[in-house]
Amino acid sequence: MESGKxxxxxxxxxxxxxxLGSLQYGYCLGVINAPQKILERHYGRAxxxxxxxxTPSNHTEEEAxxxxxxxxxxxxxSVFSIGGVVTSFLVGFVGDLRGRIKGMLMVNVxxxxxxxxxxxxxxxxxxxxxxxxxxxxxxxxxxxxGLVPMYIGEIAPVAYRGALGTLHQLAIVTGILISQVLGLxxxxxxxxxxxxxxxxxxxxxVLQSLLLPLCPESPxxxxxxxxxxxxxxxxxxxxxxxxxxxxxMAEMKKEKEEAMKEEQVSILALVRSSSYRQQLxxxxxxxxxxxxxxxxxxxxxxxxxxxxxxxxxPVYATIGVGVINTIFTMVSVMLVDRAxxxxxxxxxxxxxxxxxxxxxxxxxxxxxxxxxxxxxxxAIFLFxxxxxxxxxxIPWFIVAELFSQGPRPAAxxxxxxxxWTSNFIVGMFFPYIxxxxxxxxxxIFAVILFGSTVFTYCRVPETKGKxxxxxxxxxxxxxRRPPPDPKAATELEHLKxxxxx
Length: 501
What we know:
Transmembrane segments: 70-91, 103-121, 127-152, 164-182, 194-215, 280-303, 315-336, 343-365, 371-389, 410-433, 439-458
Structural class: mainly alpha
Region (Disordered): 474-501
Family: Belongs to the major facilitator superfamily. Sugar transporter (TC 2.A.1.1) family.
Order of helices and strands: HHHHHHHHHHHHHHHHHHHHHHHH
InterPro entries: GLUT, MFS_dom, MFS_sugar_transport-like, MFS_trans_sf, Sugar/inositol_transpt, Sugar_transporter_CS
Largest sheet: none
Number of helices: 24
Low-confidence stretches: 56-61, 495-501
GO molecular function: D-glucose transmembrane transporter activity
């Protein structure tokens, strides 16, 4: 059997177990959306700005939330991202401290703690308990969203690295969909069961904690970081069955030799180093384009967006977005190792730009033409489709492809911080920007998407089917290639024409 093209039950178990952390991340992203009105009522009562026992005729709590309720609600949404920003810097440290497997096992304590805090929210002040639980869960997800792609990127065979890397995003959107379904009023999204809905955020961590001890450690970590060659060979065989490991070991040996030539790269050293500047700019820009595309504005506030678009049952439209989300992530899993990362990202960003413009047009003319609500809904659905084709899944695993073992943990930490920071900015300020810009709010995202498309076309290389060393060599070639000299080019053309004459 050919090395690098093998899939086994152990590899499938390891990837499934790892992406349970991504499932939990997606659940946390989506769970806060559906019960928004219910939580706002509980916040209002706890803050004393709403009556404890409102009468059916009292609709003010539905129509105009108190400013303090809006503030605490926005904080409940965005504090999750603050937690992610704080711990994203620790991804490399935690991953190298005890290994990828034990690292994921350790951080599950945070997930379970966050779930318990939110599950017991009614026993204390709900706004404070939910905010505290969401913050702790953010700490967990900031680490998990870096550890999961790192582990999968290191254990995946080259031929399947894109598809397996995309499973991180597939698990995220599946978690979002599960949270949307469970958030329906007749299930858990009601006055009695909302703490259970939020508390289930920590459930995947329990299952992952039971399965992680059954998964092999990353052979790359064992050999390159710890120098344990024999253990690395054993893990390779556990992942791929009995085969000749010499080719994989030779690749890791070459990567280790390259890593030994350079000192362990810290985050500060990575930022300052000109050797990695091009890769770092590409990695950060891809994460910025993912978050500032406006996708999380839809994930966090889709229910209110659909309501503004004239949808009578916005929660079901939101679930529809989740279904489309999941389906097209599966499409990306099938295409990413065929069409390539760069191609899918370009298609996704360009399509999203067109959809953002169509969405704005639909919202602007909604009061003039009633059928414009269908334009807005269609644009939202297509926006999500294009996002999941490329800009959604690819930034998460391409960072691990762009960097060698030495700078990889620092690069993943920086990219994660960039992602979480922009996630926080969108989650915290979108309601205020929407209030300021009204129906034109998605024009801002359209401009950002257009710029991101141009950048991707000009600067992002194709990494499909290439080893880590080949990708690194491509960037080195770019750095060494001198910029074209216009004067020299003119002289060359003149000489050429003279020769032809």
